[in-house]
Write a structure and sequence with these properties.
Elements lengths: L5 H20 L6 E5 L2 E4 H17 L4 E4 L12 E8 L1 H5 L6 E8 L2 E9 L4 E6 L4 E3 L2 E2 L12 E4 L9 H14 L2 E3 L4 H9 L5 E4 L4 H13 L3 E3 L7 H4 L2 E4 L4 H12 L4
Parallel strand pairs: 3-4, 10-11, 10-12
Antiparallel strand pairs: 1-2, 4-5, 5-6, 6-7, 7-8, 8-9, 12-14, 13-14
Helix pairs in contact: 1-2, 4-8, 5-6
Bound molecules: D-MYO-inositol-1-phosphate and calcium ion (2 copies).
Amino acid sequence: MVIKSTGDIIAISKKAANAAGDLIRSSKPLEVRTKCISDYVTEIDVECQKIIKDMIIEKFPEHNVLAEEDGGEFCDKNDLWIIDPLDGTTNFIHGLSHSAVSIAFYTEGRIVTGVVYDPFRDEMFSAVLSHGAELNGVPIKVSEAKELSQCLVATGMPFKRKEKAGEYFDCLREILKKTSGVRRMGSAALDLVYTACGRFDCFFEGWLSPWDIAAGVLILNESGGRACDFRGENNFLRNGSIIGAGKNVFGSFFKEINSYLEGSV
Ligand code: IPD
Ligand code: CA
Ligand code: CA
């Protein structure tokens, strides 16, 4: 067994998320760089990542780190921290207080712990594999919605992959017809945990990165929800496509998204 203690792992995840969150809450970005089309990074993303990595490396010097501002792709390693220091950078740049810190720990082929912290609302979402999910220490559950027509759906648009707009909007048109509404909030990590606690009933987005979704997927699964990629498989950390929903509507929601987007993974 490679995992030392999930207690230590989740404690350091929360401590690091709080420290980065303090900086996000008290800062305004001064310097915005464009990484590629519609993809921005500020000095706060970089500082937050340093704060988080320093805390993790001090406690677990032998562990591996996959963090957004270092780049890199997911590869299946033991003792791997998957970090998005600031999910929702575009919101942050525009003064929209809807962003989060996302920290997951992956080992032996599974995401074992996940923390998503919203510094603006002081909401700490967390989960440990097989031990349930919490919001500020209180257990959370997905919504009980039974019909798609009752569902509020969160999504993200392929703004970095504009060539995907046609197939995405064909799918979104159908979702809009069949559900009670759609929201585009600008943080995939928060979309997933909002689905975990029943604020949203369903979420889908494609062309993401592992750090956008690793922590949120565990939190959603541990709150009784279900998640898979556009093909119905568990390869979301590799291919960046994700469908998540409460257990009652997951099957019908998956069928809709899969029928439009299976081939675009
Ligand atoms: C982005 C947010 C956004 C999603 C993007 C992500 P970032 O992350 O999660 O909601 O639509 O695709 O890249 O760049 O703000 O960390
Ligand atoms: Ca992100
Ligand atoms: Ca980010």
